[in-house]
From TrEMBL:
PANTHER family given in the database record: 2-OCTAPRENYL-6-METHOXYPHENOL HYDROXYLASE (PTHR43876:SF8), UBIQUINONE BIOSYNTHESIS MONOOXYGENASE COQ6, MITOCHONDRIAL (PTHR43876)
Assigned keywords, A-Z: Oxidoreductase
Domain FAD-binding: 4-97, 142-323
Keyword set includes Oxidoreductase: yes
PROSITE patterns per record: UBIH
Name of protein: 2-octaprenyl-3-methyl-6-methoxy-1,4-benzoquinol hydroxylase
Pfam family, one: FAD_binding_3
Domain of life the protein comes from: Bacteria
InterPro entries the record matches: FAD-bd, FAD/NAD-bd_sf, Ubi_Hdrlase_CS, UbiH/COQ6_monooxygenase
Species assigned in the record: Piscinibacter sakaiensis
Gene3D superfamilies named in the record: D-Amino Acid Oxidase, subunit A, domain 2, FAD/NAD(P)-binding domain
Gene Ontology MF, one: oxidoreductase activity
Amino acid sequence: MSGKVEVCIRGAGIVGGSLALALARQGLRVELVGPLAAPAAAGAADVRAYALNAASVGLLQALRVWDALPADAATPVRRMQIEGDEAGARLAFSAWQQRVGELAWIVDAAALEAALAEALRYAPHVERRAEARPGPAPALTAVCEGRASASRDALGVPMAQHDYGHRAIAARLVADRPHQGTARQWFRAPDVLALLPFDRPQPGRSYGLVWSLPDAEAAALLALDEAAFVERLQAACGEAAGGLALASPRQSWPLSLARAERWCGEGWVLLGDAAHRVHPLAGQGLNLGLADVEALARVLAGREPWRSPGDARLLRRFARERSGPTRAMAGVTDGLLQLFAHPHPAVRLLRNQGLRWVDRLGPAKRWLADQALDGR
């Protein structure tokens, strides 16, 4: 790539790589700094899977990444079953009821990163570097480094954070009967358990597990051997998905709610987990980050000819547009977690009855599903 760099993107994960492709399509000269993916722990398999909504899939299609994924790396969700912590307290959604092809897609994280890396190899105007080149600063630095962003800290931007005292446990599972494109989720006190339909390692019978529990309970589960862990997991979800077996190592990470005090300034902007984090119970973390990418790319494409990409007023347009949706999603996920984690019998009765009411109210259920489908 020749010419002066106009945008430096720090952080080359899915959000940073997608932003580089989106800005390169506008003819901006982009420097993408860092490895495409965070290095995995030595000897650890990557068990991450993302739930992507229609808007995120549309962005990846426009960037010519989605269609490059292997066939078994993206699994459509046709149905969703949500269970409370009382018998009969459930909420069910289907793509047929919503008049869409699928409610979401479950995507292998490593496969998506590999498809992005391949697209970036051939992207004009993008230079990949391990470190930013010396010399004059570019017009805009976009910080996409994730939750532990050194660049955000160097800018002196405080990150308001609430630690839940919970950990997420993730793994790949294989069931003894087909998943039929059904995602299953249990909301209980104090845990939230999700089985996400997947086609790796075994097509039609695999799941991605995401199990959120208090720290002490998560540590106790992680200390169990595989057989004992599966026994506890099977007891937690019953026979809804059939008999389950571990098909990967278990991994875990702490959960928190966080939001940067400022998202932009003259010559810089924050995106994705560097700007905001939510609880994974709704599977919206990456969707919010990709919505940031789409919004920033659109704002930069529509700027006045005399404005620099790093103009503070221009970047505030982006921040204003994204502030409301990210606050709303943080409120929804935090509110759901607090509601279903509360041990009081009256709260338990209210939340389980609420699931039954919403399931019977067609308009309310369709509205909720629409928010998830179009959530940005």
